[in-house]
TrEMBL record:
Role this protein plays: Specific class of high-redox-potential 4Fe-4S ferredoxins. Functions in anaerobic electron transport in most purple and in some other photosynthetic bacteria and in at least one genus (Paracoccus) of halophilic, denitrifying bacteria.
Family annotation (Gene3D superfamilies): High potential iron-sulphur protein
SUPFAM superfamilies: HIPIP (high potential iron protein) (SSF57652)
One GO BP: aerobic electron transport chain
Entry keyword Ligase: no
Organism: Alteromonas lipolytica
GO molecular function: 4 iron, 4 sulfur cluster binding; electron transfer activity; metal ion binding
UniProt-recorded name of the protein: High-potential iron sulfur protein 2
Keywords associated with the record: 4Fe-4S, Electron transport, Iron, Iron-sulfur, Metal-binding, Signal, Transport
Length: 97
């Protein structure tokens, strides 16, 4: 397992806290723009539209919101943006259940 340095941990923690405090309803209402891999937060969290990590995709991450059938969905990590259901970032956490 790869260790996370202090700076990356603080970025991830801050981003997660901001995303989680917005709530699912606000995310669904405000998320309209597709997340670009060139976005500063996306780069910091190594976001990609196509996961290269077996079994780990945005679609099965606990932070994804919205309609399970949609290709692009809101994510608590990236407020105001939609992520590709086949994507991945370093904040990925397996959805319970």
């Amino acid at each position: 397992m790869k260790s996370v340095n202090r700076r990356d941990f603080l970025k991830l923690s801050g981003t997660t806290l901001i995303g989680m405090t917005l709530g699912g309803v606000a995310l669904r209402a405000n998320a309209q723009e597709h997340l670009s891999e060139e976005d500063a937060t996306a780069k910091a969290l190594k976001y990609t539209n196509k996961s290269t990590v077996e079994g780990s995709q945005c679609a099965n991450c606990m932070y994804i919101q919205g309609d399970a059938g949609a290709e692009w969905r809101p994510c608590a990590i990236f407020p105001g943006k939609q992520v590709n259901k086949n994507g991945w970032c370093s904040a990925w956490v397996k959805k319970p259940g």
